[in-house]
Design goal:
This protein is mainly beta and 230 residues long. 6% of the residues lie in helices and 48% in strands. It contains 2 helices and 15 strands. It is globular and about 55 Å long.
């Protein structure tokens, strides 16, 4: 069980990072030059995620508890250097366990994407257990010719256990800023149990909420397609 305090993902002050990743060009190829993670976060860097002909770094995020535990605060910062390509993904769905004592859990990702660089954030969906309270925020700072692919999605829960939209709170915020902190894309999704209609009443027969953002001009179209098909 994690012992970290609850994180306010809407705060203007970023907490001390749980994880940090820096990717820069080394000998003409994208490479991880700095990486750090502490409990409850872990990074996995497979050496053969894609063909050696593709210049891309793949990083998987892993939780020691197999998911997000009540009260967990996970923060991650990324710096993608000029001309680099990186993919941030997961090994399985992000499980959010039930809230204990109404404690929220949350994740915060802040990423700087350099010129002519590509960052693809391609996680498996978030799955909230019954009574879970979860908030996440992802902030991207991009240049005028940066490239970003962002997938943000959520399932209704553990359907086989009858937990369909049975969590207490889910909030996801995605913000993209151009140079000079100029807002380019600001989006927020909030699902919360109400005194009137429940989340299940409002979602009816739907079991997935998903958003896809594609930003930028992909100079290496073939390379980008190969990455997404892998």
């Amino acid at each position: 069980m994690a012992t970290s305090t609850t994180m306010d993902v809407d705060s203007d002050k970023s907490p001390t990072p749980t994880g940090r990743i820096v990717i820069q060009k080394v000998a003409g190829r994208s490479a991880v030059t700095s990486i750090y993670a502490r409990y409850p976060l872990k990074f996995i860097r497979p050496t053969k995620a894609v063909s050696s002909d593709i210049d891309a770094v793949w990083i998987y995020t892993v939780s020691y508890g197999g998911g997000i535990v009540s009260g967990d605060s996970v923060t991650c910062t990324m710096t993608i250097g000029e001309g680099c390509t990186a993919v941030l993904t997961t090994q399985a769905s992000t499980k959010v366990y039930k809230s204990v004592g109404s404690k929220d859990s949350g994740q915060l990702l802040e990423a700087q994407v350099g010129r002519s660089a590509l960052l693809a954030v391609l996680p498996d969906p978030v799955t909230c257990f019954s009574s879970a309270r979860y908030s996440q925020k992802q902030v991207f700072y991009v240049a005028s010719d940066s490239n970003l692919v962002l997938v943000d999605w959520l399932t209704s829960g553990r359907r086989m256990r009858g937990e369909i939209w049975d969590f207490e709170l889910y909030k996801s915020t995605n913000n993209i800023y151009l140079e000079g902190n100029q807002p380019l894309f600001l989006d927020s999704t909030l699902l919360e149990q109400g005194a009137g209609l429940s989340v299940a009443d409002r979602m009816q027969a739907f079991h997935v909420v998903a958003m896809l953002v594609i930003l930028g001009f992909f100079h290496g179209k073939e390379n980008f397609t190969d990455i997404l098909e892998t």
